[in-house]
Write a structure and sequence with these properties.
The structure is a homodimer. Chain A is an alpha/beta fold. Chain A has 8 helices and 10 strands. The first copy, chain A, folds into 2 domains: 4-113, Tetrapyrrole methylase, N-terminal domain (Cobalt-precorrin-4 Transmethylase, domain 1), CATH 3.40.1010; 118-242, Methyltransferase, Cobalt-precorrin-4 Transmethylase, Domain 2 (2-Layer Sandwich). In chain A, the strands form 2 sheets. Chain A has a 5-stranded parallel β-sheet with strand order 3-2-4-1-5, sandwiched between helices. Chain A is elongated. Chains A and B meet through helix 1, helix 4, strand 5, helix 5 and strand 6 of A and helix 1, helix 4, strand 5, helix 5 and strand 6 of B.
């Protein structure tokens, strides 16, 4: 009789932004396999569990994924509650598919526990809705990151077609992102909000125009780029004096 | 000295899919203003609070919104913890903007607590990622519902440009949605998953082709339409024998 593997969304970072179900399962877990970026405060909720860091920050090779799959299956044959903890939500850029289908093929029980994704936590923090009655009724979540053996896909078109875009895992590719969007026709002065470490004490928010995105300083933590007219008012408030002047090539404003 | 209004995401429905922070604030709240669709199990978490139902299921008039705004402000001047509870997440189709900006203009403290949005809960339940390595790297959240005095906006274009689309508040408009997407060039056999009451005990999932969406029976509960090739495998598994035959005009499969 084997146990259940729970693919659990750890939410954006703050330990009280896990769901009640996720917190309960962490408390019951005997083993927790977690991404490298999961914070200590969240991991402490798994007080009884052996904790195994398995995620890799940049890319993931097929070999590594196969090894994670095998570890999960082995643990499910030994323990009642096995948690696979992923940042944000498992079904949105969480790459849960490989693990889910492997475990199901092995005849093991798997359940997915959804989480608060970074774009929603960032929006709560900014106090700016992703959608707004009358002006923004579609929002696209995209990542420009290309994995091993993947072809580039239509993230630029998806970003252009929606009123608001949330770009995940775009840190370090700011130059490419801004150039691709502007080349495709997105106005260079489209407002963006760059949010680092959303929901955590050290979080940082910078408002700028899209053309100035490449010049914004970043600290290397999890970064989300939000893009759309809903950020226009905040951009103007952050740098009111620069609004009528020609737009400089450096950051518009830094809010901490 | 006035209190704080917390705009809190109630999540998809199940009471243990609230965040830990949301559950704590409900327990502390003296008044809770909640949408009509919030379930009893969630409301019971607000054990000390006076509960006021304020949401309207279909459309919201400016007068009603002004009355809600005033109730929130009045409550914040009397109580320490006032919760405005909204289904899903407040910043995604939650229309938090009017309430946030009104309360801020009144000089009152407002905080937003993010929640698990329905598309993530539905994906967890289906065991199918919204995004999948190599095949789906963008997902659009849209609503075709047009509010009072709003012009129709580009939800169709946004749905077409993304790999996966999650259509909120589309129940009752299945015919319009399917016709608009197919007319704009979305293949009529694009797989969809229609998820009602995601995360709740009475939840129902139906897989079908986009052209068959208008014929699917629905029960009137909160409904989410998920659209994209990531649902192809589930559609084929749900109705394997119909795959090679000419596609009939009725529902492909019902899973409960």
């Amino acid at each position: 009789m084997s146990g259940t593997v729970y693919l659990v969304g750890a939410g954006p970072g703050a330990s009280d932004l896990l769901t009640v179900r996720a917190a309960r399962l962490l408390g019951e877990a005997e083993v927790v396999f977690h991404d490298a970026l999961i914070g200590d405060e969240v991991l402490r909720l798994a007080s009884r569990a052996r904790k195994v860091a398995v995620g890799k920050r940049c890319g993931r090779h097929a070999t590594a994924q196969r090894f994670i799959n095998k570890q999960l299956a082995d643990a499910a044959r030994l323990h009642r509650v096995v948690v696979r903890l992923k940042g944000g939500d498992p079904m949105l850029f969480g790459r849960a598919h490989e693990e889910l289908s492997f475990l199901e093929r092995q005849g093991l029980r798997v359940e997915v526990v959804p989480g608060v994704t970074a774009a929603l936590a960032a929006s709560a923090q900014l106090g700016i809705s992703l959608t707004r009655r009358g002006s923004a009724r579609s929002v696209t979540f995209i990542t420009p990151r290309v994995g091993h053996g993947e072809k580039e896909s239509g993230w630029v078109a998806a970003a252009l077609a929606a009123d608001t875009a949330a770009i995940y895992m775009g840190a370090g590719e700011a130059q490419t992102i801004a150039a691709a969007l502007i080349a495709a026709g997105k106005p260079a002065d489209t407002p963006i909000a760059l949010v680092e470490d959303a929901s955590l004490p050290g979080t940082r928010v910078q408002y700028a125009a899209l053309q100035d995105l490449p010049g914004l300083p970043t600290s290397g933590g999890p970064t989300l780029i939000l893009l759309g007219e809903v950020y226009r008012e905040a951009l103007l408030e952050a740098a009111p004096s620069s609004a009528p002047a020609p737009r400089p090539r450096q950051p518009q404003a830094v809010q901490e």
